[in-house]
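Table S4 entry, DedA family protein.
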Amino acid sequence: MENLVHMLMEKLGPVGIALLMFLENVFPPIPSELIMPLAGYLATRGDMNIFVVISAGTIGSMLGILPWYFLGRKLGHDGVRKFAARHGRWLTMTASDVDAAADRFKRHGAVSVLVGRLIPTVRTLISVPAGVANMPIGQFLALSFVGTLVWTAALAVAGYLLGQAYSVVADYVDPVSTGVLVVLVAVYIYRVITYKEERA
């Protein structure tokens, strides 16, 4: 997996980073915890500027959260519940999960968007209740931008500071990230199999 990410970045440069981060937010095939540190490492070789790396990662990630926000905004709470009830087996999300997410958003609001962008998985899903609650797009983007910038910058700088040592770490990153992906797929399959339908 690390080799695939590396190849895309070397061939497409900043566009490759943005594309990977966009996909990571729309449907997370490759975690940002792998993408951004590797991009930061490439910056130490002079392939890209570290600020360009952070900007590309942030832009791609921001573009990736918009579909979820507008989905929540268009469908509304009841629509999302029905969507979850109809396609919940494959989303591994029930109508009750939608209610719980909406309740958390009502309690924490803006803070949940800001902090949620720093938490794996949550950073994508938090966009849906934000859209459902009709959070102003300007506020949503501003809060998401701050959280996203902090997250992508931290990961990129970590890879940058590792410098040449990353080549040693990379020997362990690929099998570990592949193992994590296998576990995630296994958990997903388990949740699909054990999913219990609910009425919307």
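Residues 2-194 form one domain.
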